[in-house]
Request: fold
Amino acid sequence: MSGSRRLAAAWLCLAGSPALSAEHTFDGIYSGQRVLTKGSPGPRCPAKEDVSVTIHGETLTFTNSALKNFLQLFDPGKDGSFGETYTDAGGAAVHYHGRIVGGVMDVDVDATDPPCGHHWHLKKE
Reply:
């Protein structure tokens, strides 16, 4: 799995916090950009990139230049916070944490392979 796929897959494997209530508070389409915060810009660490996320119930679908309609489970806390460390079979790790507040999703993502970090700022459409 490429670094960008690992990075996307990792921050999308959202888990842990109490289950989302029946009203699906966070449902919707969020779009914006991810911006490089750590590492050197390049094909595996884009300096800036458009991304979109669609949340429906307990699923999240992610799209960027490398991944289209990548489906994952979504289980944030009632306050909109989420975070996890994901390690793939090859040992590459990605740590991410974020929160959705007032229709805005902010996420910080740090990866070991490639060694780069991004800040995601997405607004609900």
